[in-house]
Design goal:
2 copies of one chain form a homodimer.
Chain A: H1 4-17, H2 26-33, H3 37-49, E1 53-55, E2 61-63, H4 65-87, H5 97-103, H6 109-118, E3 144-145, E4 154-160, H7 165-173, E5 181-187, E6 194-198, E7 201-205, H8 207-210, E8 213-217
Chain A binds a DNA duplex (30 and 30 nucleotides) through helix 3.
DNA sequence: AAATTAATTTAGGCTAATCTAAAAAATTGA
DNA sequence: TCAATTTTTTAGATTAGCCTAAATTAATTT
């Protein structure tokens, strides 16, 4: 069994590995974990002793198979609890993160699997992220950022890259939610801002917005 | 906010206070917490520094108002989660304790209150124990132990004193559950064992059983 | 290729929560 | 009452997880 802190590190490494294919640097991990590089080195040693990561001094860190399994299990629980909070308890999608950060560490295989069943085996969490199944299998995300679409292209909003409360509240305020069809009417060369059409109305959004919205093109 | 360990101590003191009205002794608390007396002394000092307990050396410990409030909040969460596990996720009443021990430490007032609402404000947990409401008010238990009934008396089973998996499994095996009507047909002077009638059938039970079953007499 | 800068690790401390062993205080009982 | 026993506290270690400051290694410039 892993400690709360170990689980958080494993999760962070997992998320960073997509960006740092050749190994996650100590500094990147320190940034992600909001801690000091020296603390990261300490923890990496502990995780390495438990064979959850592969580590050579000054070379960055990668999850082992066991580490990956553990990370995916935590992510599975996090996302299932998010679905529970929104679907069953009426939380808004910008209110679930902090609570799910706690709930993801509850240890009970039966609990996780019964929760999954109770929620009818959801495939995605409220932010559109895929939920691993009991075997750790992910749905592969076949999506692009809205910022990558060209003028005239159309797609469905399927997820958010940034799930901070601030960003989600901006989306709520502008009625942007998962499932909405979005058409790129104009795209500014200078700052990448866009004029989009949604619900029959036009809306101008900055690149900061479009670069955090996942779209499935139709 | 309190640490996991602090919350567990507060809860233990709360439970022991009913038996030790004049203050909970260090040894009793060590026994309850499955730890050493010296560790208890350490923690009592910490709780005392935070004004969660009143403590004078060698005199046992009592919860302050703040300590009592904190303990009741933890107990409220524990029992609500037990209801959730049984009612919504299909756990048996002998499987919920360990998981609820973890869930009771999740910090989110909104979560607790929305869970309470989702469960339709249950008054009792699966073992018949009262659930404090959001203000910390308990239903007062108006019940006696089955072992206190005399021959010929009748009552309804409303709770268990021991909620260990072993005891609950014994009850399951003998079809004893909350809500059942029980009549004392015979009571043995020598060992206090009883012959009881339930569901039209007779069953002989030892004092260890009858002293752990709460009854509401009709 | 040497020098500077940046990243990483080591060394040494700190705190919460635990432990063992010893000391001190309270209780019991002859 | 006072000696023996029990209970409780103190003293001193230990571990996980974090910190700061210093040292080391790697990367980048010139």
């Amino acid at each position: 069994m892993f400690s709360l802190s170990e689980e958080n590190y494993l999760k962070a490494i997992f998320h960073l590995e997509t960006a740092y294919k050749s190994g996650v640097s100590t500094n990147a991990l320190a940034e992600e974990m909001q801690t000091k590089a020296s603390s990261v080195t300490d923890m990496i040693k502990r995780l390495s002793d438990k064979d959850l990561v592969n580590y050579k001094r000054y070379q960055g860190v990668k999850l082992s198979e066991a580490g990956k399994d553990a990370a995916i299990e935590v992510i599975r629980k996090h996302r299932l609890w998010e679905v529970f909070l929104v679907e069953k308890l009426g939380f808004n999608w910008d209110e679930v993160h902090e609570v799910a950060e706690q709930l993801e560490h509850i240890k009970s295989e039966k609990l996780t699997n019964e929760l999954d069943k109770f929620l009818e085996y959801p495939k995605r969490d409220p932010h559109g992220d895929p939920i691993p199944d009991a075997k750790g299998n992910f749905a592969v995300a076949n999506r692009v950022l809205l910022s990558e679409l060209k003028k005239g292209e159309i797609g469905i909003c399927v997820g958010v890259k940034d799930s901070s409360a601030e960003f989600l509240q901006y989306l709520d305020k502008n009625n942007i939610s998962l499932g909405k069809e979005i058409e790129v009417k104009e795209k500014e060369d200078f700052d990448q801002s866009m004029l989009i059409k949604m619900d029959g109305k036009e809306l101008r959004i900055s690149n900061q917005i479009s670069a955090n919205l996942y779209i499935k093109t139709t």
